[in-house]
Protein 1
Amino acid sequence: MEQTQKIKRTFRELFGASPLIFRAPGRINLIGEHTDYNQGWVLPAAIDKAIYLAIERREDDSIHLFSDDYSEHFETRAGELRRSGKLWPDYILGVVEQFLKDGHSLGGFNIAFGGDIPLGAGLSSSAALECATATALSSLFDLPYSRLDLALKAQAAENEFVGVKCGLMDQYASIFGKKGHLIKLDCASREHDYVPFAASDLRIVLFDTQVKHSLASSAYNRRREECEAGVGLVKEHHPGVSSLRDVSETMLRQYVKPHDETVYQRCSYVVGEMNRLQEACEHLEENNFRQFGQCMFETHYGLKNQYEVSCFELDLLVEMVETRPDVFGARMMGGGFGGCTINLVRAEAAESLAAEIAGIYHEATGMRLAAYFVSIEDGAGCVTASHA
Ligand code: ADP
Ligand code: MG
């Protein structure tokens, strides 16, 4: 509400008119890490932190953009999209480019946007910005896109225009989020089931390490190659296998382990994680959050020891909470080498835990820890009607 009013005010001051306002949230992922590009499942949810984007058509064909958080303007035209060079306008213009490629002739428009998703912390502020843009433009110019189309266009914008090779999860969660529910997304079929997350006495708390080690992108590419290598080795004996989704631990022991221990460890983590996600969903059905949380810890140790994408700061944050009865589960979230841990914490204890962990983290690393308390909310949509 507050964010909606804020961006509306900014827009009025800049463009002197009453805009439509769209919201697209960031996301968390409870379990299912590095499974997306292996054609497995993930379990994300949209959160209460979001991008708020005000938009209105223009008479001419120029595009005027304003970032409220950076206080920066950018101008270009639909006919000749000018790249900003990996800066914030590219996340918007990448979506415009996707729509133009489909043959839609967009007119000019004004946008002002801002939000409260921490940038670069692994909550997908970039996907939220793309999804806010896709939802807004599709509505403004009456384009015939489904929600899945919008998520795919937003992903393509990040892949092609910004140049970041992300999977579909972030954009999918931002578009399809549902209050109080996790999204069990099958990355192969791109279909989902909603899983109720009825944990009223628990809070989801993110601890932001505030570090991003430079290894992140090279290691990400290497892990993808290692997974492909594992699939290749199994395929020699089972030609029908096309991804780690089709592979069992027994197959890995038989065909991969004797050839390459490292590739075996990587693949074994992924196959284990896919099974763990299914198990975690069964615990959710029974509202057994203790067991669900145990799965999160197991994921962390798989990522640390087998997949080797954790780091000192992430491990420290998980180890600090592991023996505390108020913490049901915790793990590193995202690609690794920095970003946040996600913690399931007894609601009453959450604030004091965060304060205490921040103190210990500061002592150990000299860095300030940021803690974000998040709730699970609806995905992208127009908010003007309800908050006008
Ligand atoms: P993440 O998606 O994990 O938050 P990224 O590096 O992928 O991190 O995306 C962050 C980038 O997205 C920012 O550097 C900026 O260019 C853009 N962005 C996201 N949110 C905003 C915002 N509120 N205002 C301006 N730019 C934003
Ligand atoms: Mg991003």
Protein 2
Amino acid sequence: MEAQLAEDAENFSRSLNSVAERFRIIGKIGEGTFSTVYKAEDLHYHLFDNSWDLDRTPAKRRAESNAEPQTAKKLKKSQEGNERRRKLVAIKRIYVTSSPQRILNELVLLHTLSQCKAIAPLITAFRDQDQVVAVLPYCKHSDFRSFYRELHISEWKYYLKSIFTALEHVHENGILHRDVKPTNFLYDISKRRGVLVDFGLAECEALESEHCACRKHGDSLRQFVDRQPTGGYLKNDNRPGRRANRAGTRGFRAPEVLLKCLNQTTKIDTWSVGVIMLSFLAKRFPFFNSADDIDAMIEIATIFGKPKMAAGAKLHGATFDSTIPTIPDVPFQFEDIAVWAITGGAEDSDLTASLRQTYTTDENYTQAFDLLRCCLEIDFRKRISAAEALEHPFLVDV
Ligand code: ADP
Ligand code: MG
């Protein structure tokens, strides 16, 4: 297996001259839906613009520029130091099956957003025939699965503050990330810092976001829908299907994405952060595990209940109805869901009692559940924004 990985990295390096000249491929670090990512050393780090270096704080840069001329001895020592501090990068080899438009979109957005420390900036990009690679600083991180259960609630705050800070910047620029999930947020527990990556599905927010265009579009649709019989699936449904951007990852898609709302807003990203938060609170990952969009709606409806889902659907000119008996009329409380998920439903256990006690008396938890509710709000107009989340009592003092 390892030999195969090494061979793959070697083949990749040889296949692209520009990569081989400047970078030494160390190994494969990730394989996503649209790319393979390699860890590499930038052999010519000192010859190029280093403003991307996330470790070079403004203070460090100022100190460097004001530094006195170095003696030969000092210079040698600092060169050795540099040698030890090899500059590592992540080389993202975008699959040739991706459309040129999609690749361009990702590179342009990465470049546009490069001022924020919580977003991995684009260092450079190469194209060789149909192969495009993007080079980003290597961000040390831990696998979410290895820490989400054990991480203390006080540490969640740093994780969430970091992800909301990145999103605030993305959203200020009128961009929707569309694929917020743990594998796209590279979190370094020791530094309490995370970096948002993967703008492959990101897009610019449509104007008039507050006045959801699909509501206007939906008015005529709604009139039509309201005339339909309720209480089951429509027979011979001849309404035209809706086409809307549904990009994203199963389990992290906001209801309006599942409902194919035509004018989605930056609030789809705060929903996804809510889903991550639910994993912290319920100690389950992934929390939602649906096979398709219909399943995903059923999972969400099982928590929120029929009336809320129906009201949410109406907002987008759609209807929600179901005869599934597990979809309740009254929503479940997230505190009950967390207790159930952690204890496996053992109602009389000591653990259940102690969790219930903690959730009602520990201020950290009461605030965390409140922020969770603000993120997982079906009505996107009432859902919290990234900027507001940073001001929420759970995060404001971090
Ligand atoms: P895809 O579009 O294929 O999902 P991503 O940009 O999400 O590609 O990268 C896939 C994986 O590669 C990530 O989940 C992460 O593990 C790793 N990765 C991506 N960028 C970096 C980076 N800058 N530093 C370290 N690892 C990275
Ligand atoms: Mg990804």
Protein 3
Amino acid sequence: MTERLTLAEADIVRAAEIWRAGGLVAFPTETVYGLGADAGNDKAVAAIFAAKDRPSFNPLITHVASLDQAKALAVWSDRAEALAAAYWPGPLTLVLPLRDGAPVSGLVTAGLDTIGIRMPAHPVARRLLTAFGRGVAAPSANRSGRISPTRAEHVLDTLDGRIDAVVAGGASQVGLESTILGLTGKPTLLRPGGITAEALVGTLGTHVFTRRDTEAISAPGQTPSHYAPRATLRLNAAEWQDGEATLGFGDMPCDLNLSQSEDLSEAAANLFAHLHALDRSGREVIAVAPVPHRGLGIAINDRLSRAAAPR
Ligand code: TXA
Ligand code: MG
């Protein structure tokens, strides 16, 4: 039985209690809903992989409420400091060297000597993390290979009965997973997301490398079919064909529109919810209009091409 928790203080306390007891609680963040467990509890973290049917070699992001918590987990640096000052709380995950004796399960880091950390901005996530007082490991709250959830209903679609509780906190504002930046060597973009590479370059004053195209898959978010609806996706559709579910961009007739006013932030926020809705329509093909490949459009196109990849 999955408890439905609200934003009432008693429910926030209840969620932290479940984490302390080693349970799983899905909760809203500004990017997508996360499936959280005590990052220091091996059994609890293992339960995340079981609930998601997720291959266990994937490392997880640890969510924190404060900089002190982040510094207890990772070897901090000037670059980490500058990025945290500019973007935390917010949709940026930093991959940093793991601190010796950090209170974190080896399952969270997948045995690596690095750790991905993020301080989410969503007020409900902040209340929960503050109430718990320790790091919370949380991948997106969906069964492996399915679309990331931006609402509590999406979480329940694939995880009802498999997790202890979900905190319902409305729609996620960003709608795309966090940007992941590797800081263990040269700054390297590991996953595009809500914060653009251009913005990171501006803050760091140095080049940011990408390794998606040049190196073997290193982050499981990088497996081609990771964000997958049941229907087949037809991308960059210049016109609609009979029988398709249609996802538009800009001023055009369609079933659902990412953003009629061509606002890429709005399109990102709508992306997963619209894919969920069109997938539920039961049609075989979802046709998607072209989305401009700039700014947030790069992250949107990244998610769309993964959702369209053969599996
Ligand atoms: O927006 C988000 O980041 C959401 C919300 C819930 O915070 N979380 C999320 O987690 O997307 P998940 O598990 O679906 O994706 C985590 C990604 C994976 O691709 C994982 O490989 C990468 O982060 N990651 C985590 N720790 C890492 C590490 N030490 N080195 C390299 N990649 C890491
Ligand atoms: Mg995910």
